[in-house]
From TrEMBL:
Family annotation (InterPro entries): Tscrpt_reg_PadR_N (IPR005149), WH-like_DNA-bd_sf (IPR036388), WH_DNA-bd_sf (IPR036390)
Stretches assigned to the Transcription regulator PadR N-terminal domain: 15-88
Native species: Pontibacter lucknowensis
Pfam (any one): PadR
Name of the protein in question: Transcriptional regulator PadR-like family protein
Length: 115
């Protein structure tokens, strides 16, 4: 299940949740945190991450800040006020979806002949 379409459809929610918990993060840091939290089961590629970050920024949900680190620049992302609200909305929506999936899965597991 390394890069399942289920994860890909949830990438913006994953990004928003991580930024909610960590205040600000840069792209590579996000990929490594996801890998750490999922014990390597989910690997977010740069090709998937950066378009999502740019889309969220364009929608006004993220704010980017360039910071000098040594002799290079690093782009940090953080939630805007609209991003904080969107995060709460997306997490509530995801929670409801998971609950409904559990109902469906538990019903089918309890009655295998109906699956």
């Amino acid at each position: 299940m390394k890069n399942s379409s289920l994860y890909k459809g949830s990438l913006s929610t994953i990004i928003l949740k991580l930024l909610e918990e960590n205040d600000r993060m840069y792209g590579y840091e996000i990929t490594q945190k996801v890998k750490e939290l999922t014990a390597g089961e989910l690997n977010i590629t740069e090709g998937a991450l950066y378009p999502s970050l740019h889309k969220l920024e364009a929608e006004g949900l993220l704010q980017a800040e360039m910071v000098h680190i040594g002799n290079r620049m690093r782009k940090y992302y953080k939630l805007t006020e609209a991003g904080k609200k969107e995060t709460a909305d997306k997490l509530a929506e995801l929670k409801g979806f998971i609950e409904q999936m559990q109902v469906i899965m538990n019903t089918n597991l309890a009655n295998p002949s109906k699956a």
